[in-house]
Design goal:
Bound molecules: pyridoxal-5'-phosphate
Helix content: 25-40%
Strand content: 15-25%
CATH architecture of the largest domain: 3-Layer(aba) Sandwich
Number of strands: 15
Strand order of the largest sheet: 1-4-5-15-10-11-14
Number of domains: 2
Low-confidence stretches: none
Length: 456
């Protein structure tokens, strides 16, 4: 029998995370609104100090505490699978491998950082976490992690997703978290927006503002905020994906991938798979590395590289990143997890340094690709993941035209079993494509024109 999946044993799990911040040349610090570098102390009401230390660390390798590994063992190491049936369908000479992050209890890569974040917060004496969620994957991942570690959890869920995807809310509740639609009347940030725009569909930027506000306003000092993507420490925790995949590719007999692909919302699952390969690329390997975003929310392919806030109410420090402007409210496309206005500073800087080749795809092409996947491989992917699949199919077709045996590796960031209503809309012809008009982008970028500018 030909091998179509490689599992690792518990002993083979990576013991350290890889920190790309050690290897980028021009990474710039977060700034205060008046242009000064942010000190760790300024963040201490928002995050626990042990995670702030990780956020600013420039160490290349960071030990994973054994207690965290013990929790990750519930589903890690995850399988690396070969998409043999898709290859046959496409008649491509490419060999397509995918890291299956859909096997975690919440169904995506997100618990890879939810568990360490909850653990470090608990170590620091924190009792309660607040957070935002888009499609609900992050909220359910943090609810899952907080439940295992005995922390309280409150989730502000982007309203359009709260309405489109009620099942995720139920998951959060069954793991003991509280979930409210955002904008909500629970915070000043939410009340302000509801006053101006009662039907606001919400955005990750708004939900982040609400979650931070609620954390820093807790007088007991025992609440902190947790972010599911974008920040350095989040991407660090996700690198366990790529480090496992490297070992597994070797077991498949592959020396290296030619192409590495992942979808990007805030950048974490893509970074998790790709950064260990970006390290190889920096050290001379020839690898093409492609982040894929939706044309409806094209921060990297259309936005400028600029300092911008991570949230709508401007509560976060200024981050150097590709951005559509912190007030940007993306159209309600079904890949809810890809509707963020900015991009992780580490991913952004890797683009600036010429290490990545970003691309954008339309919603319909992504759903079409998801369907091809479901009909060949059998698994139903998350709409976010389908962006990576669309790119994989394009690259596999190109390999066929060129007659080349390429090795394509991508991150299967999550399953779509909670997103079936989106698939129903696609199947009944109710979805359309959307590309962000230049005019709208220009308007949205007005909000950042007076902020400090990063060096390029
Ligand atoms: C959240 C999510 C994403 C997007 O977030 P990143 O931080 O960019 O990874 C992609 N896929 C799935 C399944 C998700 O849950």
């Amino acid at each position: 029998m030909e091998q179509i999946k490689v599992s690792l044993s518990e002993e083979d799990i990576p013991r350290k995370w890889y920190n790309l911040a050690a290897d980028l040349k021009g990474l710039q610090p977060p700034l205060t609104p008046d242009g000064k570098p942010v000190s760790p102390q300024m963040l201490e009401k928002v995050f626990p100090m042990n995670l702030i230390e990780q956020e600013v660390s420039r160490e290349r390798w960071v030990d994973i505490p054994l207690e965290i590994l013990k929790i990750l063992y519930r589903w890690r190491p995850t399988p690396l699978r070969r998409a043999r049936y898709l290859e046959e369908y496409l008649k491509t000479p490419a060999r397509i491998y995918y890291k299956d992050e859909s096997v975690s209890p919440p169904g995506s890569h997100k618990p890879n950082t939810a568990v360490p974040q909850a653990w470090y917060n608990k170590q620091f004496g924190i009792k309660r976490l607040t957070t935002e969620t888009g499609a609900g994957q992050w909220g359910s991942a943090l609810a899952f992690a907080c439940n295992l570690l005995g922390l309280e959890c409150k989730v502000f869920m982007v309203k359009v997703s709260y309405e489109q995807k009620p099942l995720r809310k139920i998951m959060m509740e069954l793991w003991g978290a509280k979930c409210v639609p955002s904008p909500s009347p629970d915070t000043e940030a939410g009340r302000q927006i509801l006053k101006k725009m009662p039907d606001c569909p919400g955005s990750l930027g708004i939900a982040i503002s609400e979650a931070i506000e609620e954390a820093v306003n807790d007088k007991t000092g025992k609440t902190r905020y947790s972010l599911g993507s974008v920040l350095n420490h989040v991407l660090l925790h996700q690198t366990i994906i790529g480090l496992e995949a490297k070992k597994q590719l070797k077991l498949f007999g592959e020396k290296r991938p030619d192409i590495v692909i992942g979808c990007i919302g805030g950048g974490s699952n893509f970074a998790g798979l790709s950064f260990p390969f970006v390290y190889d690329k920096i050290n001379g390997e020839k690898i093409r590395i492609i982040p894929v975003e939706p044309t409806a929310c094209p921060s990297v392919t259309k936005g400028p590289f600029a300092y911008d806030y991570g949230d709508t109410a401007c509560l976060t420090p200024l981050l150097p990143m590709f951005t559509l402007g912190h007030n940007f409210v993306p159209p309600p496309i079904h890949a809810g997890g890809l509707r963020y206005h900015g991009m992780a500073p580490l991913v952004s800087q890797a683009v600036i340094e010429g290490l990545l080749e970003p691309r954008a795809y339309n919603q319909l092409k992504c759903f079409e690709s998801a369907l091809i996947w479901a009909k060949t491989e059998g698994f139903i992917p998350a709409p976010e993941t389908s962006h990576a699949i669309a790119c994989v199919i394009d690259e596999a077709k190109k390999a066929k035209e060129e007659g080349k045996e390429k090795v394509i590796l991508f991150n299967y960031s999550g399953h779509g079993l909670m997103d079936l209503l989106g698939f129903e809309k696609y199947l009944t012809g109710q979805l359309s494509d959307y590309s962000l008009p230049d005019e709208e982008l220009k308007r949205s970028l007005e909000a950042i024109k007076d902020l400090p500018k990063p060096k390029v």
